[in-house]
Design brief:
Blueprint (H helix, E strand, L loop, with lengths): L5 H12 L16 H10 L1 H17 L5 E7 L4 E6 L1 H9 L10 H4 L3 H7 L5 E4 L11 E9 L6 E10 L6 H29 L10 E6 L4 E4 L1 H7 L3 H4 L11 H10 L3 E9 L6 E12 L5 E10 L1 H15 L9 H18 L2 E9 L2 H8 L1 H18 L5 E6 L2 E9 L5 H10 L5 E3 L2 E3 L3 E8 L6 H18 L4 E3 L3 H19 L5 E10 L5 E12 L3 E3 L1 H11 L2 H21 L6 E5 L2 H4 L4 H12 L6 E6 L6 H13 L3 E7 L6 H4 L6 E4 L1 H4 L7 H15 L3 E5 L4 H9 L4 E3 L7 E2 H14 L5
Parallel strand pairs: 16-17, 19-21, 21-22, 22-23, 23-24, 24-25, 25-26
Antiparallel strand pairs: 1-2, 1-5, 3-4, 4-5, 6-7, 6-10, 8-9, 9-10, 11-13, 11-16, 12-13, 14-15, 18-19, 18-26, 18-27, 19-20
Helix pairs in contact: 3-7, 7-11, 13-14, 16-17, 19-21
Protein name: EAL domain-containing protein
InterPro entries: Biofilm_reg_signaling, EAL_dom, EAL_sf, GAF-like_dom_sf, GGDEF_dom, Nucleotide_cyclase, PAS, PAS-assoc_C
Pfam family, one: EAL
Amino acid sequence: MKSKADFILESNQYCRDRGMDATKIPSPQQILSQADLIKKREEYCEILSVVNFFGEKILHFLKGTPLLLSVSDNKGFILHMMGDETIKKTIHDLGIKPGVQFTESSMGTNVVNLSLKHHQAPIQIIGDDHFHTYLHESACYGVAFHNADDRELLGSLIIMTAKELQNPMMTTMLATTADSIERELMLRKQNRKLDMLNQIIMDNTRNGMILTNRDGVITAFNQYAELFTGMSRRDMVGRKVQQLDSMGDYIYEVIQKGSTFEDVQMSFGKKVTGDRLVCLFDAYPLYDEKKELLGAFGQFRNITEKVEAQERFNYLANHDDLTKLPNRRYYKDQLKSFIRHAQERSEKVAIVYLDLDRFKIVNDTLGHSSGDLLLTMVSLRLREILTPGEFVARMGGDEFMFVLPHLKHEEEALPRVRAILNTFRQPFNMNGYEFHLTASAGISIYPKDGQDVESLMVTADTAMYSAKERGLNIYAMYSPDMNTKSHEKIMLESSLRKALEHEEFQLFYQPQMDIRTGDLKGVEALIRWHHPTRGLIYPSAFIPLAEETGLIKQIDRWVLREACRQNKKWQDAGMPPFRVAVNLSSQEFLDDGFVKVVQDALEETQLDPRYLDLEITETMTLNVEHAIPMLDKLHRLGIQISMDDFGTGYSSLNYLKNFSIDRLKIDQSFVRDISLGTGDGNIVSIIIAMAHSMNLEVIAEGVEDQQQLQFLQAQHCDEVQGYYFSKPVSANEFEQSFAALIASRKTMN
């Protein structure tokens, strides 16, 4: 969970120290009378007009999102509210309305007071960051704005919305808006000063100015006109005004027709630096006292910063801040355009929904900052694979969408999708690790699979989930029968939630044998689900769904208790003691309270800790700062720890020696072909030698024939597990076959 900012903690403590009751709605110490409020608004008239202008833009860009925008003065008095009427009425009923003063001593932890107090940066207070509970369902954002000349604090701009609609982009948007407000106020102040001068001071103004005679010949050209146009005064004075790019034709029309122009926006590129200047251009005719034409006057006002601020605002509204790719909103707008063009030309458009496989493991193990870095690297590759006309956007999380336009046949999309998936063949190098990511893709085709944006996105999403169900790093084209499979997945999730309550899970056990003596060293507990209508379901069909829905921790804890209980039951029945191995999920391993869970399970079942073996995977140890102390705490309980699927993950050998583990478990993918003379045999030999050099035992899983066993014996592997000895069996079957298993001691020679 993200920790609260220091200023929020300090404010909440201040409220407690004052004896405030968090459950009571506070009352402000001061409320302006109607007359005082009107007077205060008159003082802030210009500021409120500017804030209202930019506030309307915020509400327009976030149309459809219920939010309330408010502005306060520098003392915390609310002067104006705009936005969602429902929110406005709700807080009005709570006593929050224009004229109310927000102070920490009267209103508790609030975004108005804190944004004024800490006015150098935006403030956000989400949910229970607020001291008073009546605000716990809200998300509030605030930023102070100042006088641009002397940084005098003028007031604050506040956004309030529902907690579930919180968005970190709000603070960036507020900061950009406050900057625009400050600059607009500064520009207005500058223009007022120019009006007070009541004369044109050509070389002392910050505006570019041009004068011509009645024939259109330039007679004056000030330094800012030089700056804006890139033309020198020496070259331009005496030349016809039509020779000026952009504004020349406007000024000439003034001379010919007596026209006037105001606020015509123009852009100029600096020849030396390549920077862009944006100006507002005015042009007027000049007359003498007899109303006869003397010439024309043109001026430029630099609005580059204002335009750039607006462009930044538009960019943030349409692009993902992390990857800089277009976002969902921009993607949908562009897809409409692609569909329109396809209709006009009788073409097809492919929509590709791409989702990274097992990306949650990276976030869970290394943290979101590393996950964000990896997403940025993925985005760069996806951008590089684009061909002219194609388009990609980040839809959120680890999901991306492509548009592949101008297709005559839908099959034309398949080579492009394969090329996209092939970009993941090369690992991603990050923080000393090589990450071998894969992705799943779903494809829908306009107009076959949908006539509009929403239906095409839904069908592509459905196809993507169908691809995931088939495996990793593959794609699927949408077909109507996938909707049935999606329904089946929903039904399976519903059944999974009831499976624990209805005792539908069962553990099967597979022996782990000493490779030298043939003695039983332990068993691995493997879960099975006896579904009431579908029969026996193997873990591969429901464990990913359990991880996706958050049910995995409940299942993990049931497996742990049941495996310990069964092992203790076997010992009490007179069987020789051996360990039971239990697989952990990354969610359980990353839970700081898991050590207590294991301790409670051992105490409840009275199983000696040395007969419990917890199996972790390499990917769980990516977050070394968490893995080392967690493994150390678990090991101190007296249990054993094995690293499962070794060789398939991302472990750093530099850290492996620091982990409190007892054995490495070689993944069956390496064992499968060791007798065929492939490179897997060399890998297995290296793993065994390395483990023994670190005083670790080695167990090889997936042993199915005599040749594999003999190879492992030659390499001095410690233990083996697989169908060569026994398939996973129920507890009852294990008890019945135990005597035969021990008596036979499958030959190791």
